[in-house]
Protein 1
Amino acid sequence: MSKTENQSPQQGNLGMEQHNVPSPTKTEPASPTPSTPQPPVPSAPPAFPVQLKGLESCFISPKKAFIAAGGTEQQFAREVNFAMQAMLNNPYLIDCARQYPDHLVEAIKNVSLTGLTLNPELRLGYLVPYKGKVKFQASYMGKVDILIRTGVVKDIYSDLVYANDEFSMTKGTGGTIIHKPNVFGERGDLLGGYYFAVLTSGVVKFDAMPKARIEEIKSRSEAVKKGKQSPWDTDFEEMARKTIVNWAFKFLPKTGISDSMIKETQLDDEMFEAWKNAQGQKPDDFEEDDTPYAEEVK
């Protein structure tokens, strides 16, 4: 057998490959194959709303204080977006912010101090025009949220009593309150309302407010005094319940609530509701203090 015949197929192939190697040529850089994934092109950041130009620092400077108060960067970004939405929906807020930018900064800080949100779906707090300045204001539901979240109460609510309801209240040791509303019949004239709160200690607190007192507080509303339509016209029962809870807040323990929270919860949101429900009227119609018991807040 010849030497060539003793070569293995692999050896023969190697020899053939060496024999047929083409002469060196200029190499071109290899182009990526179609299957090679390409990195995404980063999109440009969204443009700052042109209506808010000049107020950029107001939406940046509260960040440090917001996070120091317990918020996160993600929460801060969300609240800033909610704040921008609120201002774009209510141009008068933009005018107020341009006149007093520091108050807008403080308003955004107070969102974190109270632990609430400007999310319009949750309706826990709002940016409102108050005497030409932007303020953060806790709503009725926001106040209840703070009281429960901070451990002041386990539960709190208020309700109204009508002439055809069954109602009785006993104060003192072993005091009780019984309310059986005539929910499926004619309830008659309004007599008043009451609040009922269960403290974290298990202690129950309650009291009643007569209709005359509710009407007196209603008459203090600047919108009502000026003959403007207000939530007292469109949502009387809700406004009355909120008035009673505001009154109850004075008698609840404040342990665990910071001074900032107390300040925010003492503000009533009627001013905002009246302003919101009467768009088209002059802004200064709603720049007076509509806070019930304002003279009693120290």
Note: The chain has a mean pLDDT of 76.
Protein 2
Amino acid sequence: MGKEKESKPTSITDLAKQLGLSVSGVSRALNNDPRISAATKQRVQTLARQLNYQPNHLAAGLRKGKSKLLGVIVPYIDGRFFAVVIKGIELAASQAGFNVIICQSNEDVAHERQNIETLLSAQVEGILVSLSRTTHDFAHFEKVQQRGVPLVFFDRILLGTEVNAVLLDDYAGGFLSTEHLIEQGCRRIGHFAGPQHLGIYKHRRQGYLDALQKHGLPVAEELIVYCDTMTVETGRQAMQQLLPARPDAIFSSSDAAVAGALQVLEEQGSRVPEDVALTGFSNEMFTSLTKPRLTSVDQRCEQMGEAAVRLFLQLRQERGNAPPQHVVLEPELRVRASSLRT
């Protein structure tokens, strides 16, 4: 037996043919236009129900030049941070009447370029993006700007670019974490630093350096490990590299990396926080599940998503007539057992 043909969705043209009306007349009837008589509206709506007619809101929007679609590009979707940012984006976008298309770059700039092409082809009205770790230039975003599509970056931006962005005060987060460790009596504080071409990691490192300087502690380069990725495995490698330098604390630019450090310290028989105190960054869900629970910087994820949508709506209203602006959110240090010595 051959496959049965799937029935084609009923179109507004089908309704018009069956009723002997014009397409525009049927459209007006479905939209309760006062120029259409009550009897005609009744006929149209009855047939539409019988044939299970579903209006194509996207096509209608595109005819009016408004798709009501908002594109979002994130490096990855696993983990708490980007999942909760997207939650904030979808909530604010829905309240503004927008649907959201979500793309992942998987930390790959080539994939990020494809995401841009996909979203532009879908005729989104705006794009919100957090850069991949391997993005080093702005070239593929110029096409977005040339088309007049509002573009808002969040969390990650390239240093030296003038863009509209919603950011955490990463410097303050790095400073808070390091100063907290100093207040706990730590004096040889190591740092896991992420890729320095991305502002978030450069600013976190600078906060660390300035907190040491404020409290009269020397900067020991042997206590800083630069990581291309911020994963459990790179955290393990960084901790193993630092062990001979005998740090008494670690401020990590990511929670995943500090979780790797915790594993190594447990394997070495070191006590946390008595021998080595630990702090991370992002307040991932697992930080409250480890033993000991991990101190971390909360990044205001949901507020970041909501603020990115608000900035997009503002840009859409202004139609590119305002200079680029940054919305900066304040971090909060969530202090837990991994860093508490006093």
Note: Residues 1-5 have pLDDT under 50 and may be disordered.
